Each structure stands twice: as C-alpha cells, then as structure tokens.
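Table S2 (text version). Query chain:
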Amino acid sequence: MTGPVASEAALVSRAAGGDGSARSALVRAHQGAVFRYLRRLATDGAAAEDLTQETFVTALSRLSTWRGEGSLRGWLLSIARSQWLMAQRAPAARHQPEEDESLERLGLAAGWGAPMDPEVLATRLEAHAVLERALTALDLEAREVLTLRDLEGLSGDETAQALGLSVAAMKSRLHRARLALVAEVKRGGDPHG
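Corresponding structure-token output:
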C-alpha cells in the first residue's frame, strides 16, 4: 500500500491500538460523510446526529475488523446503514430536536460576514431547495444509492457492498435513481407537480 491508503491503514492501526488522537482524526475525517448519509435516510437531524454517534462508537470498537479491502469511508457507511436499520426496527422512541442553538452559531453557519451577490445567493438557494425537494421525494432505495455513490463518492464496488447488492444490481438501482431524480428536478421537486 502506498499514499493515502497506507496512511489511512496506519491511522486505523494506531486507533485500533487505543491512540486517542488517531481515533479523533478518524472521526473528524469521516463524520461529515456519515452524518450526510444518515440525514438522507433519517430525514430528522436529531436522529441522524444520534445515529452518527452510535456509528462511531460501534466502528471504534470494531476497528480491528476492518481489513482495508475497501475504503474506510465505505466501511463506516455500511455500519451507519446497519445502525439506521436497527433503529427502524426498534420501538419508536422519538427524539425531539433541541432548540438551544445560539443565534451567533446559526449566523456563522448561514454565512454572516461573507460577501455574496444577493442574486447569486438566491439562485443557489433555489437550486439547492429544488434538489433537496427532489431527493426527498424519491423512495428510500433511490435516496440511499444516490447518496452513497454520487454525493459521498463511493466507488461502485463500495456502494454495492454497503447496500448488500451485487455491482450489477447496484448499477441498475443507481441508473433508475438518477432518472427518477432528473424527473423530480424537472417537476421542481414537487411530488404533486
């Protein structure tokens, strides 16, 4: 192994051995991808946050089982999917979203102080909103394959493995999902349009 794969394997090895800084580095490197994936599945931010934490608790306890055959991100997303599926089977203990986010934190996330042409911002926001509505209108299988392959950038093999499908079945599902997404975008993401 050379390059990024070798350094990731070394980081995993150190983390599996209990190195706290290596564990933190792994979480920082992959938590965004895990959260985005779970957010697409759960459609509830609080549930996605909880599942992200559960994913990393599980993954960190099982680091020694990662064989390095696929990407670490693909392995983590497989664990995230398992966590989500288990949560779907569990009794529905609904978590209420917390309302304690500070105005300053929200403002920074919204881009306070960042110069941008209001017309460009409005166009971007509308395009993003149409895409989000279109993705939400798709069935779970379509959202899942699009998130893994197109949004998170997993390879075809990694996506198939994460979904428990053959590569051919994953490609078929991905093609159908992409067509469905384009159809939804053309409708403006409105399932009734």
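Notes on Table S2: The chain has a mean pLDDT of 81. Residues 1-91 form a domain with the Rna Polymerase Sigma Factor; Chain: A fold (CATH 1.10.1740.10).
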